[in-house]
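Transposase
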Amino acid sequence: MAISFKGPQYQKSVILFAIFFYLRYLVSYRDLEEIMAERGVKVDHATLNRWVVKYAPLLAGRAQVSKRVTAKSWRANETYIKVRGKWTYPYRAIDRDRQTLDFMLSERRHLPAARRIFFRKAIASNGPPDRVVIDKSGANLAGLQAVNVILKFTGDGPMMGFKAFHSAVATLAGIETAHMIRKGQSANENRSPFQVFARLAG
């Protein structure tokens, strides 16, 4: 079933373009407001934020279901970002080919419990692994991408810090989905990244 875009006064394609551009590139909502205006679409930054928070998790869920089969050797990393002035803890797993497996943002850093929840989620969507390496060095690609995400979240990049946990969860899910598409994890590689993203909406 397709994701419903009923209600907003803007066309589905306009909403998807705005969400994709925000998740894929280092822009703030105010920058995106200007970019959309240049394309003849007048939409304020608060509306753009609502679109991302509402639709990014739905699109991320569809991306998980439709992604290519991943390898059974996993590498997981843990890091931290601030949400409303408090530290929160993203977990991320990739396979040996650096394909994204799953991701999760936790409000608490109770490592054994958080890892159990995360791996239960990852196994549910990818099947059980043969091997898992927990990496805290940040030296691999997943770690480097996580650092880039942190810079965007904390205000050291164009994005400002999050004011609510649910918006952080939604945005992180969307950013990871954009990374998955960029890495060619979709079955529709003959399409452009935006076309792949838009097809997730059904």
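thats it. The helical segments are 12-24, 29-38, 45-66, 111-126, 141-154, 165-182, 193-199. The longest helix spans residues 45-66. bye
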